[in-house]
Amino acid sequence: MASRLNPYITFDGDARQALEFYQGIFGGTLSLNTYADFGGEDGPPPGDLAEKIMHGMLETDSGFTLMCADVPPGMEYRPGNNISVSVSGEDDAELRAYWQQLSADGSVSVPLEKQMWGDVFGMCTDRFGIIWLVNINAQQG
């Protein structure tokens, strides 16, 4: 297997909902492991931490991989704009469908439209606070 680069996003308790949301958009196979799944000899962690996501991965037929987790115990959750996820390609209909779903209930900072470099591009922040860049490559004619 070749090396791959993919985003890994940490959430403050809603990683399951975010991954299910992204699976609804991109399809694919979702693997979720809770903290309880890795409880060890001491058993599952107490309270609702047991059902939080220790590691989740979405792998799609398009070759996308997205990994997510809820903040582990003892670590501070520090959201910010230090991560964005880029989705690009040539399938106009597919990418526009992704855009519609990702931007719904979120905010659009750059509308999905033709840009000076010739591609159709947009940037939005989804309802979970994740910045998405969608680029539809210009058709070479």
UniProtKB/TrEMBL annotation:
<dbReference type="InterPro" id="IPR004360">
    <property type="entry name" value="Glyas_Fos-R_dOase_dom"/>
</dbReference>
<protein>
    <submittedName>
        <fullName>VOC family protein</fullName>
    </submittedName>
</protein>
<feature type="domain" description="Glyoxalase/fosfomycin resistance/dioxygenase">
    <location>
        <begin position="5"/>
        <end position="132"/>
    </location>
</feature>
<dbReference type="Pfam" id="PF00903">
    <property type="entry name" value="Glyoxalase"/>
</dbReference>
<dbReference type="InterPro" id="IPR028973">
    <property type="entry name" value="PhnB-like"/>
</dbReference>
<dbReference type="InterPro" id="IPR029068">
    <property type="entry name" value="Glyas_Bleomycin-R_OHBP_Dase"/>
</dbReference>
